[in-house]
Amino acid sequence: MEPFTFATSRSLENPNVSIRIDTLEGTRTPLPFTTLLSSPELKHVGSNTSPSSDLYVTVTVWADSKPLTVPIQTSYKSFKTTRTWMEWLTLPVRYCDLPLSAQLAITIWDISGPLNTVPFGGTTVRLFERDNTLKKGRQKCKVWLGVEADGLSDSTTPSPCESGDEMDRLEKLVKKHELGEMPRSDHWLDNLVFREIERVNRQHSEKRKDEHFLFIDFPRWDFPIVYAELEYKAPGDKQLVPADAAVNGAPGARPANVVMNESTQEGKRVCFKVFDPEVVRDNPAESKHRRLVRSQRNGIVDRDLKPNAKIRDELNEILNYGPTHDLTSDEKDLIWKFRFYLTRDKRALTKFVKSVAWTDTAESKSAVQLIPKWTEIDVTDALELLGPNINNASVRAYAVDRLRAADDEELQLYLLQLVQALKFEAIRPDAEEDAVKESSLARFLIMRACDNPTLGSYFHWYLVVETDDPDAGRKKLYSKIAWEFQVALKKTSHGDETRGVMKRQSDFVFMIGEAAKEIQSMRDRTKKEDKLKQILRDPKSSLLDFEPIPLPLDPTVNVVGCVPEKAMVFKSSLFPILIHLKTDKGDLYPIIFKSGDDLRQDQLVIQIITLMDKLLRKENLDLKLMPYRILATSAFTGIVQFVQSMTLANIEEGKKTPAGVLPYLRSTFPDETQELGVKAEVMDTYVKSCAGYCVVTYLLGVGDRHLDNLLLTPDGHFFHADFGYILGRDPKWFAPMKLCKEMVDGMGGTNSANYQKFRSYCYTAYTTLRKSANLILNLFALMVDANIPDIRLEPDKAVLKVKERFMLELSEEQAIQHFRALIDDSMNSVLPVLIDRVHVIAQRWRK
């Protein structure tokens, strides 16, 4: 039997992608003269006046909804009867660099006046067939009239034009005949067949006279070209160098299954790794092996098994894996084999759950019986067991039982994620109202929220926001949970009072929203402020003075009214409003109310920063982070705590204060006895908070950092605001960490002792937070299905983006070296400085 001969796409290193634009078929009757008279601008479009107007074609390579090359176009050609180009175009990308999702966006352009063009039509052609082989030969592509080819993964201009009729079948046979994929008959018989095909084509063209088709040609290869990914040489492996692929019968070419080894001996056959679409399915042989290895008859033997030193090291390495690490089949079998031995190690439970084949009834039952015998796991690991990949109700119930060990303060730190985890519970949206009782997590959260008013207030608002979900099933689910929460409250001794408070909180937020809505129609900001003060001053508004209610943003604070004279409207495009609320202790609590803005992403970032602050303080490292509070009250409104501060942009301009961070701090808290003339406590706060925010914003990948969202309080607290871009996203060039010259100058420069302290704080904070990486990763894993913009873009990669920044594969010393390099790069890079200057100029121009 002859071996199957093919080449891989990686072996085509020299040729660039090429395509021949052949012919455009289809007729479109020019517009009537009366139509051109009524719309004179249409006469400039060539195809509106002539059935063979001059057109040109552009071709762009796309992949994963992104363009990979610039457009390449055909040369000018004047058409008389048929639109035929017969022109080869070479694109600026090689075949070996193409991803599997590569496709060509082909647009046909028509002239519509001087220096103006309009799309005649477009079509999108995939470069690889369904079997992952490169397309070759003649292709017939449907042209979607009047639109430009979009090149998206889910394209609206796909090229396939199959209608299922006889002509489609004949065209496929003709293509096989041209490529030599079917035996040829006698010459006279072929001619008879072709004449019959022409007759059928004429009938077919009458039926499709309004459709257009573009015929193109791809290079014809001597054998199939199979897609292959780049393979990297493993340490210690001998490298196999693929032979030159046979491209268009090039001299000296060899089949792809013949390679040279390191000693350049020719003729040795090796196997190439080729994509197998069935690799994701269960392997029957592996499934049989797993059932034999994990047979219940081995249970008695496994109970007494103890690993030797070598296996113990292997198990320890597996147990040190992070929550995002997938176990191999062998690792799962090893965990299962020594499951009884591992019950004494709390780290092993999450790995054991991953190793269980939950579809196997007997194995699932055995695993559920073993879990209660495990050493009690930490709350961090319990959160992992509530993720979207854990479907077993008993496992989730065990995780909830471990959460009971967390006090209310700790539970509040995770509450946002636990509310999201309710989506992964086995609650049917179409079930009866008491279906929530089937969820152990829902019952637990409702019970704890009923017992603690502060926890209950946050729980209530988190549920309110989720009831705005556009998905009807989720909206119904959270509405049921909110209803059950109200029913449970009613059964408590303080239930009526708590429910009354929640209603008054809702009325309070509604009234502020109505005030913000009433001033939106006014254009002048001064008039907006006057109107806002008038609304707040009106006794009928219910905002001037009222009975004490817990502030939804911070339920530990009771507010009793507002101060209309201090109200303000910001210059932002959405015109958020600032209101100073009066507390029952006589203090003022300023808040910002935003309407038309989804604050859930900012709320998540602040929650994670608050958690990181707690983790650092737990290690006796207080970096003065002082995260302000944010609460989303719906999908498009929210409340933000206002902190009296100035942006670094305003400080550098020096309009109201001395220009520069150091002169600003010197003017607010001077101390002539200190070297820099600033009070020691204030400088210490500034240095520590700069270090803290550099680390936490780096770990969260916060983007769009400029001097207008870096703020400083008079007592030295430095902090960030506006978290519209996270996880590495940035509308401009993205620097991994924001450390600008203005911040360092405030410490006294790079040669000062404060700057050295800053670097030391950064290293300590980074290495400390790396120890709690699993907790932070688990919290992000629970948010993958939330409506957070930057998570929703790539939910499967969100956790990995955070994990990359922890650099868990490095030792502590290597991690410090990594962060040292980050600081040096930030200080030496010129581009961020230039971007800050451009941003300042743009802001001045807008003003």
UniProtKB/TrEMBL annotation:
Keywords: ATP-binding, Kinase, Nucleotide-binding, Transferase
SUPFAM superfamilies linked to this entry: ARM repeat, C2 domain (Calcium/lipid-binding domain, CaLB), Protein kinase-like (PK-like)
GO cellular component terms listed in the entry, alphabetical order: endosome; peroxisome; phagophore assembly site; phosphatidylinositol 3-kinase complex, class III, type I; phosphatidylinositol 3-kinase complex, class III, type II
Cited CDD domains: C2_PI3K_class_III, PI3Ka_III, PI3Kc_III
EC number, UniProt record: 2.7.1.137
InterPro entries: ARM-type_fold, C2_domain_sf, Kinase-like_dom_sf, PI3-kinase_type3/VPS34_cat, PI3/4_kinase, PI3/4_kinase_cat_dom, PI3/4_kinase_cat_sf, PI3/4_kinase_CS
Record GO terms (molecular function): 1-phosphatidylinositol-3-kinase activity; ATP binding
GO biological process: autophagosome assembly; endocytosis; phosphatidylinositol-mediated signaling
Residue ranges annotated for the PIK helical domain, each copy included: 302-488
One Pfam entry name: PI3_PI4_kinase
Family: Belongs to the PI3/PI4-kinase family. Type III PI4K subfamily.
Protein's name according to its UniProt entry: Phosphatidylinositol 3-kinase VPS34
Organism in which the protein naturally occurs: Pyronema omphalodes (strain CBS 100304) (Pyronema confluens)
